[in-house]
Amino acid sequence: MLKVEGVTKLFVSGRDRVTALSNLSMELDRGAFLTVIGSNGAGKSTLLNVISGSIAPTTGRVWIAGQDVTSVPEHRRARWIARIVQDPLQGTSPNLSIAENLALATKRRRRGLRRALPRALRRKLMEILKGYAMGLDRRMEDPVCLLSGGERQALAVTMATLAQPHLLLLDEHTAALDPHNAQRISALTQEFVEELGLTTVMVTHNMEQAIEMGTRLLMMHKGQFVIEIEGEAKRTTSVAELVELFTQRHIAEDELLLAGRI
Amino acid sequence: MASIWVHAVEQGFAYGIAALGVFITYRVLRFPDLTVDGSFVTGAAIAASLLAHAGFDPFVVLLIAFGSGCLAGLITGLLNTQLGITDLLAGVLTMIMLYSINLRIMGRPNISLLRVDTATRVIERAVPGLGDIAVLLFLAAATGVVVLLLNGFLRTEIGLALRAAGDNEAMITAHGVNPKSMKILGLCLSNGMVALSGALVAQYSGFADVGMGIGTIVTGLAAVIIGGALIRSRRVGWMTLSVLLGSLVYRTAVMFALRYGHHVGFQASDLKLVTSLLVIIAMVVPPIRERLMRKVRAC
Questions:
Q1: What whole-number distance in Å separates Cα of residue A58 and Cα of residue A50?
Q2: What pLDDT digit, counting tens, does each position of A206-254 carry?
Q3: Which domains can be identified in chain A, with CATH numbers?
Q4: Is the Cβ pair B167, A93 closer than 8 Å?
Q5: To bridge A199 with a disulfide, which of A1, A120, B44, B223 should be the other Cys (CB 3.0-4.6 Å)?
Q6: Which of A96, A144, A161 is the best residue to mutate to test the B interface, defined by the most B CB atoms within 10 Å of its own CB?
Q7: Rounded CA gap, A143 and A94, in Å?
């Protein structure tokens, strides 16, 4: 479903160069749920940005559903990809109503001069919202800026899944929420992913969340994947084990680097 | 005596279409577009030239004027989205280019339409006995049609995408809309309406002048802001209606000021100064009031 091939991303500013991604490759099967962890600056968000098309890789290629999309602009990749970001303000349109936001999300390809919100669609959207408890179905006409962060993120998750994308990208999408709301949004996401069988890439700081969710885990460090676990091993691992593993590899790697220089 | 208030309402409608154009860029797209000062004249210039020199139908020239305004908006849109020139500067550049172009279109700084069959004269003749009221009804109907078409458009899939593009660009991109296309579309539509308004005003007042567009952005903003203060709503129908109402109130106030302002020492030439000051006050007051009253921020 998703293939990243030899992707490198350099950020250059004056004399400074930062290698955000360093010759990164990975492949993800249909229906797989990958979680990516790593510290700040490891390149997690850059990876998602390269996949979604909001930044272009310096070298390397990205494939989605068998197509090379490296040069396809972000808005055209939207036919395959749905993305939820950390900031609840970014995923929704504040001055439009809940109903209008949802209507906007139902279509990802050509838009025409048909009514955006015919009565039938309004009713359908209300039914969809009803399933998710937060009571948003009774506030269809409210502008989104009146919603709380948690409610806005719940709306963003619903919107992301409405157009039935092939690939769902989650960019620390619960990090800005309080624990209670983070829990709710995680559960909601899980529900959608399972129901629709979405192929998912989730980036997170939260190791527990990374272990809990998904079928496969990658740890990033300095623009590269340093640890991969999947299946049974992933289910049974713990935060302590992961940290231990990371420390070992990390040190080993630094020693190698030093050795190489000498 | 009564007729000057009729004139104020007539102008409120005719300039109201330009105000709706400013509403599209300023409120919907959040793009401060100065092109309008030029495109208003372009509409008037094209209408006057085609009527005076080429004998065109006065209603057909309205459509041609709309098209010319769209082109002006397209230029600003391309300067901004393709060449990366900032929004304000892109508008200013097009506006200045249009100044020369408008002079080219007219061939001289102004064209009189006194001996030409303008739309308003055709209407007056078609409905005898009503006089001014016939013109008023025509302008109200013309503006009404524009408002209804605009309402309809803003409720379509593309219209909704346009509104969202001004609201949250990142979000709209993620949902498959090219925000650049939306900007260009909005600028075309907006300037088309402004030019249409210019063509109507030229026919209504019987002349086109190369300087008649100065301050279109400010008077448009005045209408948008007055309207927004009178009707607070996020619904499409109410928002466009509020702009029209704002234009009517503004033109009535202007008529009042022109008629009675001299009692307090105003001259007609002070109008643009006063209008701009009013717009400044209207833009500054709400945030201050909010702070003073510790009101919950109405989002």
A1: 10
A2: 888 888 899 999 999 889 898 889 888 888 888 888 888 878 777 666 6
A3: 2-261 (3.40.50.300)
A4: yes
A5: A1
A6: A96
A7: 6
Q: Which residues of B touch A166 (CB under 8 A)?
A: none
Distance between CA B219 and CA B243 in Å, rounded? 11
Mutate to test the interface with B, among A51, A54, A75 (most CBs of B within 10 A): A75
Nearest to B80 by CA among B72, B71, B89: B89
pLDDT tens column, A134-183 = 788 889 999 999 999 989 999 999 999 888 899 999 999 999 899 998 99
- b/e per residue B248-262 (b: at least 16 CB within 10 A): bbbbbbbbebbeebe
Q: How far is CA B170 from CA A76, A100, B43, B121, B208, in A?
A: 13, 17, 35, 50, 42
For A57-66, A182-191, A230-239, B84-93, which range has the lowest pLDDT when averaged over its residues? A230-239
- In this complex, do A94 and B299 lie within 8 Å of one another by their Cβ atoms? yes
How much is the average pLDDT of B106-135? Answer: 90
Neighbouring residues of B234: CB distance < 8 A, sequence distance ≥ 6: A95, A96, A97, A143
Helix (H) or strand (E) run with residue B215 in it:
none
Q: How far apart are CA B2 and CA A122, in angstroms?
A: 48
What secondary structure letter does DSSP report for B156? B
